[in-house]
């Protein structure tokens, strides 16, 4: 969960988000070092009264400030491209779940269990409780998924574009009418993770949150069995 005054990323709950956080820290370290060096150089030149005004060219210096930025860009580009590949890769899934964006709620279908599922609406403020205390984030039917399981999410929409986004899992996929987008998902720890539609989709765009509850595989299969037998 985010907290008041938070400046950094949310705690990672998936391998992809863990690597995204590491890449963010890596990039920020390089940026701070560049800013420190450039700032120090500018101050040194501004305060140095002996700086020559007749120097017109320096091939070695020009080569250095061309090669070094190129190497820095490589240290950013290579891990970035690797992450892009990993985010698009979908391993052999043990479970497939379909999320359908609607104005303004989500519909979930467990395609491996006869499309069992249902609609997920935001809870009104007067309906919040101790178990569901977060205003504008809680829903009446959470999406329940197992931990430590390769999951394939299929994302689409029934009317306009939406976006299925959960920051702590490093997931953000557009829901486009008439098209199926997919993303691989692996949740490392149990808990409840929140997100929101991240594509402006109409008047109630800010009132279609996402609440995902991660359980152990045993608890998940118990839930599936109970829902199957009751229906």
From TrEMBL:
One of its GO terms (biological process) is ATP synthesis coupled electron transport. SUPFAM superfamilies: Cupredoxins (SSF49503), Cytochrome c oxidase subunit II-like, transmembrane region (SSF81464). InterPro entries: CcO_II, CcO_II-like_C, CcO_II_C, Copper_CuA, Cupredoxin, Cyt_c_oxidase_su2, Cyt_c_oxidase_su2_TM_dom, Cyt_c_oxidase_su2_TM_sf. The keyword Mitochondrion applies. CDD domains: CcO_II_C. It is found in: Mitochondrion inner membrane. This is Cytochrome c oxidase subunit 2.
């Amino acid at each position: 969960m985010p907290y008041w005054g938070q400046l950094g990323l949310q705690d990672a709950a998936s391998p992809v988000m863990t690597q995204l956080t590491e890449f963010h820290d890596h990039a920020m370290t390089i940026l701070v070092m560049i800013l420190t060096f450039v700032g120090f150089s500018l101050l040194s030149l501004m305060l140095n009264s002996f700086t020559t005004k007749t120097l017109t060219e320096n091939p070695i210096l020009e080569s250095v400030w061309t090669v070094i930025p190129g190497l820095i860009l490589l240290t950013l580009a290579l891990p970035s491209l690797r992450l892009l590949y990993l985010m698009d890769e979908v391993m052999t899934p043990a479970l497939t779940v379909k999320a359908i964006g609607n104005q303004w709620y989500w519909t979930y279908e467990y395609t491996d269990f006869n499309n069992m599922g249902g609609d997920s609406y935001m809870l009104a403020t007067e309906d919040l409780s101790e178990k569901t205390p977060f205003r504008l984030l809680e829903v009446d039917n959470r999406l329940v998924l197992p931990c430590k399981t390769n999951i394939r999410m299929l994302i689409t929409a029934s009317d306009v574009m939406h976006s299925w986004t959960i920051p702590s899992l490093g997931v953000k996929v557009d829901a486009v009418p008439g098209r199926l987008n997919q993303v691989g998902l692996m949740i490392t720890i149990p808990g409840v993770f929140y997100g929101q539609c991240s594509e402006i989709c109409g008047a109630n765009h800010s009132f279609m949150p996402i609440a995902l509850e991660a359980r152990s595989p045993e608890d998940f299969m118990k839930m599936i069995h109970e829902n199957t037998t009751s229906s």
